[in-house]
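Hi, here's the filled form for the chain we discussed.

Project: internal
Contact: R.S.
Residues: 435
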Amino acid sequence: MKRVIACLSVLLMAGMGQAALIQHLDASLPGSVVTDVNGVVEWIDQSGNGNNAVIARQPVIYPSTSVLASGLSGLDFGSGRYNLRLFESEDTDSWLNFDAGAGGTATGGFAVLIAFKADSVLNTWNDLIGNSTTLTDGFLMRYSSSGVMSASLEGNIQKNAQQNVVAGDTIIFAFNYDAATGACEFWDSKNNGSLTGTKAAADFTTSRHLTLGTMDSSSRYFHGMVGEVKIFDDVLSAEDFQAERDAMVQKWIVSGAPVKAHAPQPGVGATHVPLDPVLSWTTGLDPNDPEVPNPAITGHNLWLSIAYDPANPPASPDWKDPGIQVFEIPADANPADGNVDPNSSYSPTGLQRDALYFWIVDESLGAADKEDWANIITGALWSFETITSAPEVDAGSNIVTWLKEGTTTVDLNGTVTDVTGDVTATTWSVVSSPP
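And the returned structure, exactly as it came back:
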């Protein structure tokens, strides 16, 4: 089992009120993200149409290094030009090409929704999703170097004089297009409002693929997390468009409370952790009352995996490793009080020196077992390094001649073999000479 979580939603619909979901990428669903040692290989489409997102350039990382506002993790698009391919160019004809004479089969329109978090606002156009980075062709959603939100369907809709994207924001973008009337609507959650425009139905495909994270310009890309993408192959009714937006806001933004286990100790990336540590965390909070633990949580599943090379760790652990350990801890250590404990801990044994450990705490909602994913809130990926071994010292072979009679020359050019990487300088000194 690969432990991966990511969230992306693109929304396209066919026929008013009849729109079909043709792609649904959701990082909150266990097993929906496939990784190798370099990062994300494939993001599995949940719509049933097999439109999986695949690596296009540098690999995207899962899980994200930070979480969206609701506490859920997404796909991490790094600090460089990283992206995923959502659709091959020819596969966009069915929902972006409204010119039957040019082979288009799209009819009523389309809609696109995406949940993302901006880790930073780059000094360039921050291209988020689309098949072109220009305003003269194709489709695009992005924000500027000052955070001004923008969408384009062969023409720009730009939210000037409104709240802009700033680093740390979790935002939902939603775009809805009605091919019959040419009406298009660009909505965002930060302003909770829309800008509208018109564009006559045409062929909005390009020679480029539909991608996430960057398009065809090497200097324009997105730095942050993506949680969910949905695509339907027609325009959404006003009611459906609002319902989709509301659901995404509720999932990724509204609570603002960590609904999963959080505040780990040792902290993420801690070093020199003893071999008999106490691993502790704060229980996921109640989304309806974020001041208290979620009363539906019945237990914690602690997954622990070792990576034997801390200097060159994998992007994420391989949870199929036969050395994996899973510990089940009750959420209420004192059942008599009937309350979920706000904090929990576990003390693993048998840890190794000089090792990097990954751990995840899943919250069970009465799950039948540790892989009953429908009843589990999957946790974030944490890590720590154990204490290091002492340096091995070789003072030189002829130093033993000090123990013999007579006079000898002693070589003090000894060596220190340091497996820890902690020794920065070595000083030799003679404490005493033999009698």
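Let me know if anything looks off before we file it.
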